[in-house]
Amino acid sequence: MRTNGEPAQPFEHSGTIEAESLRLRELGAGWQALLQALAVLALLFCINQLFNLRLFLGQVILDNEYFYLLLALLLPPVFLLFPAGKRAPLRRVPWYDVVLALLALAVLGYLFSQGRKAVEQGWEFGAPAHVVFACYAIWLLVLEALRRTGGRSLTICVGLISLYPIVADRMPSPLSGLATSLPDTAAYHMLSTESLLGIAIRAFAELVIGFLVFGVALQYTGAGAFFINFAFALFGHVRGGAAKVAIFASGLLGSMSGSVVTNVLTAGTMTIPTMIRTGFRPSYAASIEACASTGAVLMPPVMGATAFVMAQFLAVPYTQVAFAAAIPSLLYYFGLFMQVDAYAARHGLAGIPRAELPRLWPTIRDGWYYLAVVALLVWMLLVLKREATAPFYATALLLLINQILPQRRWDWLELKRFLTACAKLFVELVAILAGVGLLIGAFSVTGMTGTLTNDLIYLAGDNPLVLLLTGAIASFVLGLGLTTTACYIFLAVLLAPGLIKQGLDPMAVHMFILYWGMLSFITPPVALASFAAASIARSEPMQTSFESMWVGSIIYFVPFFFVLNPALIGNGPWLDVLQLVGSAVLGVMLICAGLQGYLLLAGDLTGIGPLQWPLRLALIVGGALFAAPGGGLMPLQPLQMELLALAVTAPAALIAWWLARKR
Fold first, then answer.
1. Residue 323 has pLDDT above 50, yes or no
2. Boundary (domain end) residue, out of 141, 168, 201
3. SS3 603
4. Do 283 and 537 meet the contact criterion of CB atoms below 8 Å apart?
5. Averaged over 410-429, what is the pLDDT?
6. Which residue segment(s) compose the domain that 153 sits in?
7. Do the Cβ atoms of 88 and 26 come closer than 8 Å?
8. Which of 186, 540, 591, 598 qualifies as a cystine partner to 623, CB 3.0-4.6 A?
9. How many CA atoms lie within 13 A of 603 on its CB side?
10. What is residue 90's three-state secondary structure?
11. Residue 458 — very low, low, confident or very high, per pLDDT cuts 50/70/90?
12. Chain segment 159-213, per-residue pLDDT in tens
């Protein structure tokens, strides 16, 4: 911004992805060089495999060999980067962490060397004794890596469930399954394609890694500053402009980075202080940023790592998942915009003077290539269907343009920072995905998935709505203690089959689980996004998290809307999709009007006397009826739902307009 007549300058944004990594050990130059080398090797092997280049070993590497190789490169650094505990040294690597890293490298290297033989001889159902001991070692090392990266509660959950096959036959009826011995369980976990090398690691190796590199490249070439400047140039001058900038900019950045807390700590460092300066309460400003960053991980084209795991679960192209997420995420962001607009109108919060804002065309001129590479990525995803390789092409184009143009050209130091940031993301995510993969293996080897599905259907009395409520509660509760990916995998294995068996759309069911697992980011008592935003705004964390629930309340309803009628995820005739989307948009506007107490054309509803709350409640109920899709599992058809909603909202809106005008 400019002050005292100085020329307007683009907003600068100093935060990077590294802002989230405050708990990491500070490595010396030698260790950092090793970390960068491992990241380069992992990328080279990934590119070799995905592009089928055959650059190494002169032969095609089998999938299990490729996965072991990536694990051998990326799991050992966990013990170097992440301290064992609070008392562990942060400025040097202790000897025991070096031993653990070398042990992980040696054992995974051995399994890589035996990968072809393991497939040919079926070791997952009967491995030699020395291989079983190697499996024990990796099992323990994976759990320790998970403890350091994902936390103690997630590790306890995964550790106990990974041992479940040993005692499956002794569990009560709904949880009983086929038991296996400890050696066979270890071999299955570490050697089969259903556990350690299962869906989670497969998604990372075949899809996620390229998008992670793309996200880091955007950050380190200055895309964060460009998107924020672009948002300020578009929306900064309108009422509540700073908050609308936060929503737009965080949506753009988060859809590229795929990390909620990282997005809060990067975009929030610019948007939250600006919101406070223009009149928003600190806690409210923090809640807007938390909600915007949470929704960004559900926004195409990149989304978060869990979306790639979902594509593997459903055995569909990732573009199909991204397409299904488009309408619900746009509805959510539209709801945020309307909430902010109503709040700003009711409190008289003007926008930022244009003289203090970046100008649109100079901003686009300085950062046009960010839009170009995003356009290339979307074109390759949607038109060419190149999900695995598209982010590599987009990253290559971005880095090429970045080096040609002089503004942000990298030197060797910048390149090393980029590789270090990539390595940190790879290492942390691999540790978490390898750990939660054990959940799938435990349920797979015991055959419990089918048994529990039938039991859940029986307990729900063949009522899909009861199962949906059960799924929402289970997703939310598990999301409090587990990572989003772990929560999703757990319920995708256990609950999703039961819902699908009841006739619900598979994509809608899996998206429903993902949405409700994400809600813990803004919902107490965990609310990581809200707490991170509160730390920037210096507001009270619990107050911020409760305000986040209020501001982002539409996200609690959207999953039920699209699972009740899949037309809201684009699964249906286009006329039905357009009709339901139009009705949902009107419904969201009315819900926001009721929540904030401000109705377009009528104005502020908070001063109209004792009828305020009955009228606001009628607007919320009528809006929910408009937004809730008819047909599908609903007893009323879309037209009947809309007529009922009109009967509720029309009188309330007219009375509110008359009272507001009279006042």
1. yes
2. 201
3. strand
4. yes
5. 92
6. 24-201
7. no
8. 591
9. 10
10. coil
11. low
12. 999 999 999 888 877 677 788 999 999 999 999 988 999 999 999 998 889 988 9
End-to-end distance of the chain based on CA atoms, in angstroms?
Answer: 39
Pairing of strands 598-599, 603-604: antiparallel
Check: CB of residue 108 under 8 Å from CB of residue 196: no
DSSP state of 629: P
Closest by Cα among 268, 266, 245 to 349: 245
Of 146, 171, 201, the one marking the end of a domain is 201
Sorted by sequence, the CB contacts under 8 Å of residue 278 that are 6+ apart come out as 241, 242, 349, 350, 351, 352
Which tens digits make up the pLDDT trace of 342-383? 999 988 888 888 888 899 999 998 888 898 998 999 899 888
Banded pLDDT at 448 (limits 50, 70, 90): confident
User: Could you give the CA distance from residue 288 to residue 553 in angstroms, rounded to a whole number?
Assistant: 12
- Structure-derived torsion over alpha carbons of residues 20, 25, 30, 32, reported in degrees to the nearest 10: -20
Contact partners, residue 656, CB within 8 Å, separation at least 6: 599, 602, 605, 608, 615, 619
Per the listing, tokens 């059960």 go with 470
pLDDT of 57: 61
The rounded distance, in Å, linking the Cα atoms of 141 and 309 is: 23
Residue 184 lies in a domain: yes
* DSSP 8-state secondary structure symbol assigned to residue 126: S
CB 505 within 8 A of CB 571: yes
Answer whether 450's CB lies under 8 Å from 497's CB. Answer: yes
Q: Cβ(450)–Cβ(154) under 8 Å?
A: no
Q: How many residues are there in the chain?
A: 663
Residue 72 and residue 107: Cα distance in Å, rounded? 8
Torsion angle of the four alpha carbons 601, 604, 606, 607, in this order, in degrees rounded to the nearest 10: -100
Cβ neighbours of residue 509 closer than 8 Å, sequence gap 6 or more: 471, 496, 499, 500, 563
| 595 falls within a domain | yes
How far is it, in rounded angstroms, from Cα 88 to Cα 82?
9
Q: How many CA atoms lie within 13 A of 322 on its CB side?
A: 19
CA 144 to chain centre: 24
CB 159: neighbour CB atoms within 10 A?
17
Whether 10 has a pLDDT exceeding 50, the answer reads: no
In a domain, 469, yes or no: no
pLDDT at residue 2, rounded to an integer: 38
Dmax (CA) for the chain in angstroms is: 86
Domain count, the chain: 2
**Residue 604's beta-bridge partner residues?**
598
| 481 vs 634: CA distance, rounded Å | 33
604 phi/psi in degrees, rounded to 5? -70, 125
Cβ atoms of residues 332 and 558 within 8 Å: yes
**DSSP letter assigned to residue 558:** H
Please tell me the pTM assigned to this model.
0.84
Other C-beta atoms within 10 Å of 90: how many?
10
Asked if residue 260 belongs to a domain, the reply is no
Distance of CA 137 to the CA centre of its chain: 31
Report the range of poorest mean pLDDT among 90-94, 326-330, 429-433, 483-487: 483-487
Structure tokens belonging to residue 230:
């672009």
Those residues with Cβ within 8 angstroms of residue 58's Cβ, 6 or more apart along the chain or in another chain: none
- Nearest Cα to Cα of residue 249 among 337, 316, 117, 315: 337
